[in-house]
TrEMBL record:
EC numbers, comma separated: 6.3.4.14
Protein name, UniProt field: Biotin carboxylase
Species of the source: Rhizobium sophorae
Gene, per the UniProt record: accC
Highest taxon of the lineage: Bacteria
Keyword Lipid metabolism carried by entry: yes
Residues in ATP-grasp domain copies: 131-328
């Protein structure tokens, strides 16, 4: 029987090109090496001195410093893969990781894209089709239609009334916390719709919008899944990523505190069911808002996430290795009953930015001291003498701890932060240290607005 394109997307390879940079490029390289795979690192001109270039089997500069001409340059990446004899491409997170056209181009070039099928990426990349697929699979969604908002003003008004104010207008193709607008009451509806539509057209190339209930004090809870190409899928527990600034996660933890197993269990199982229904392969994350004891799906990330380590610490599963093995066509080597999450884990994102203004801080790291000890993990590519470039995301390290209880994990993170010294550039470490002294955070179950409110109070003090 001829293979369908979806079935042909897994297979053998012995060399992986890592189409990313920074800490995740190193994390993936290590996972590949542990699996006996050769690695090809790529870089832009700004990253020529990247330490993971020296440890890769091949290191190729693919273009100028601006991401559009290097890490987002599909042709250059495919050419590098061909030159280096790579059989697969790992996209990491960000850049081209959720670009269905890139996944398609990788497969058309005869290579394996380490991720889900092109059609899964496309379905989940459009928030309306994602919502529709999730509703069909019985995953709880935010109240609101699973169809695009029409142009007709009367229908828009009726939809908002049916949902009940406040509502939120969102771009179907939105991402990165952009392309959404809260509408508190009816007289602001049409202006908000018009503005969001224009923004969506400009930023995401599609004016398609949808409307849903705006939840006023939710937490951000997500579920990690891993699936193979043979109809097996498991969920690896949950994370709480409510500590956000401008919709950007700052601290993540696993498990989400204060959520009883009988509440989360059906949601995890619904996510697994959804994966089986859409023929999902590899790793993915279902993101939910959680309010008053109920879960509401908001989107699925069809890639490895920055915060995957907290789940690795609690579940003991190497998520990157599992992802690569799924792309090789291996049968998942664990069943749901093998998944037992133990203890508590926190991750702090250490960013090169001013701890007060949050403006990015580029320059040379003149001194670096990293913490060590039981239950401490640091995922970073930087070293003393490393030059932090102004061209990319400001994430320079992830500090991860694991301990038997949440309270012990908090203590361990305080200790780890105290032992972290970065000089020569500004970082958010002072801000993270202060946050880990905060009483409400220590208590747990704070909502997605908490961090912004805490910052406002600190500034006012
Ligand atoms: P993006 O793809 O841009 O990250 P999401 O749909 O994941 O967009 O939403 C990003 C953030 O916006 C959420 O974490 C939450 O803070 C807020 N948000 C999104 N939808 C809603 C909603 N219906 N009610 C309240 N807040 C929301």
């Amino acid at each position: 029987m001829p293979e369908t394109p979806e079935q042909s997307a897994t297979g053998r390879f012995d060399t992986v090109l890592i189409a990313n940079r920074g800490e995740i490029a190193l994390r993936i390289q290590r996972a590949c090496r542990e699996l006996g795979l050769k690695t090809v690192a790529i870089c832009s001109e700004a990253d020529r001195q990247a330490p993971y270039g020296k440890t890769a089997d091949r290191f190729l500069c693919i273009g100028p410093s601006t991401a559009a001409k290097s890490y987002l340059n599909q042709d250059a990446i495919l050419l590098a893969a061909r030159l280096a004899g790579a059989g697969a491409i790992h996209p990491g997170y960000g850049f081209l990781s959720e670009n269905a056209a890139f996944a398609d181009a990788v497969e058309k070039a005869g290579l394996i894209f380490i991720g889900p099928t092109t059609s899964s990426i496309a379905t989940m990349g459009d928030k309306i089709s994602a919502k529709r697929a999730m509703m069909a699979a019985g995953v709880p969604c935010v109240p609101g239609p699973d169809t695009a908002l029409p142009d007709d003003p009367a229908t828009i008004e009726r939809t908002a009334l049916e949902i009940g104010y406040p509502v939120i207008i969102k771009a179907a193709g939105g991402g990165g916390g952009r392309g959404m607008r809260v509408v508190p009451k009816a007289d602001l509806l049409h202006e908000a719709t018009a503005l969001t539509r224009e923004e969506a057209r400009k930023a995401f190339g599609s004016p398609s919008l949808y409307m849903e209930k705006f939840l006023e004090h939710p937490r951000h809870i997500e579920i990690q899944v891993i699936c193979d190409d043979h109809g097996n899928a498991v969920w690896l527990g949950h994370r709480d990523c409510s500590m956000q600034r401008r919709h950007q996660k700052v601290v993540e933890e696993a498990p989400a505190p204060g959520i009883a197993p009988n509440i989360i269990q059906p949601v995890g199982l619904a996510c697994v069911e959804a994966c089986l229904q859409i023929g999902y392969r590899g790793v993915g994350t279902f993101e939910f808002l959680y309010e008053d004891g109920a879960f509401y799906f908001i989107e699925m990330n069809t890639r490895l996430q920055v915060e995957h380590p907290v789940t690795e610490m609690t579940s003991g599963v190497d998520i990157v290795q599992a992802q690569i093995k799924a792309a090789q066509g291996h049968v998942l080597d664990l069943t749901q009953s093998d998944v037992t999450c133990k203890g508590h884990s926190f991750e702090c994102r250490i960013n090169a930015e001013d701890p007060e203004s949050f403006l990015p801080s580029a320059g040379v790291v003149t001194h670096l001291a990293l913490p060590a000890g039981p239950g401490i993990r640091v995922d970073t590519h930087i070293h003393a003498g490393y030059k932090v470039s102004p061209y990319y995301d400001s994430l320079i390290a992830k500090l991860i701890v694991h301990a038997p209880t949440r309270a012990e994990a908090m203590t361990r993170m305080r200790e780890a932060l105290a032992g972290t010294e970065v000089e020569g550039i500004s970082t958010n470490i002072p801000f993270l240290r202060a946050l880990f002294e905060d009483g409400a955070f220590a208590h747990g179950e704070t909502d997605i607005h908490y961090l912004e409110q805490w910052l406002k109070l600190r500034r006012a003090a």
